[in-house]
Design a protein that fits this description.
The chain is mainly α and about 170 residues long. Helix 2 runs antiparallel to helix 3, helix 4 packs antiparallel against helix 5 and helix 5 runs antiparallel to helix 6. The longest helix is centred in the C-terminal third of the chain and has 21 residues. The termini are far apart. It comes from Corynoplastis japonica. This is Photosystem I assembly protein Ycf3. Keywords: Chloroplast, Membrane, Photosynthesis, Plastid, Repeat, Thylakoid, TPR repeat.
Length: about 170
């Protein structure tokens, strides 16, 4: 049974009903509708912490989805899962793939910056100051790009850029 048919709470059920109606009304191909269904099930599984199931659904959605914009969000969500699991190299790969398809995805830029900042902090803790500076500079570069796209977001990043003299 698809995940969308076994949602337990009212909001999930409401979203599922509305999404099903929209899916029926939209002039989309069968493949596009199926891709959306997998994507929706992936989001539902991801929100419940069922990352393996979410990844399965996202990978199926990627096989079917042709629209670059929609593919970018699928790739972004895959990156989120890998990042949540501490697999930062894989997360970076998926965030970059998402950005190749949709350069105006500030949340991907922000998440890349967060990973580089984390690596910079880790390097600093290990007294590797050269690597730390490199990672912090990379973080700054990605945060600047994210802030340029979404100037009212990422306030902590903006403050960090100011206090470290990187803005």
């Amino acid at each position: 049974m698809p995940r969308s048919q076994r949602n337990d709470n009212f909001i999930d059920k409401t979203f599922t009903v509305i999404a099903d109606i929209v899916l029926k009304v939209l002039p989309a191909s069968r493949s596009e509708k199926e891709a959306f269904s997998y994507y929706r099930d992936g989001m539902s599984a991801q929100s419940e912490g069922e990352y393996a199931e979410a990844l399965e659904n996202y990978y199926e959605a990627l096989k079917l989805e042709e629209d670059p914009y929609d593919r970018s969000y699928i790739l972004y969500n895959i990156g989120l899962i890998y990042s949540s699991n501490g697999e930062y190299i894989k997360a970076l790969e998926y965030y970059h793939q998402a950005l190749e398809l949709n350069a105006k995805l500030p949340q991907a830029l922000n998440n890349i910056a967060v990973i580089y900042h984390y690596q910079g902090t880790k390097s600093m803790d290990q007294s590797n100051l050269e690597m730390s500076k490199t990672m912090f500079d990379k973080a700054a570069n990605y945060w600047k790009q994210a802030i340029q796209l979404a100037p009212n977001n990422y306030i902590e990043a903006q403050n960090w850029l100011k206090t470290t003299g990187r803005i």
